[in-house]
Amino acid sequence: MNKLIAIVNVIAWSGFWAFGYLAVTAEGLTTAQWIVAALLAAAGLVTGIVAYRKLSETGPAPRHGNKTNAEG
What we know:
The protein is mainly alpha-helical. Helices cover about 70% and strands about 0% of the residues. It has helices at about 1-25, 30-60.
């Protein structure tokens, strides 16, 4: 499940940066196009934050395999 959340996180942040950059720097956008780009950027921001918080709450994945004996 963490892999799926991580993929959603990457896609959400990519959408945030792509549409946010488009909304801020594009010239000649109509008001409707600017609003759509800003809403998509906001959706990416919110989804990215939620996915990041979900990942940070679960902590690192458990490691499997041989454990070394620290006592020698």
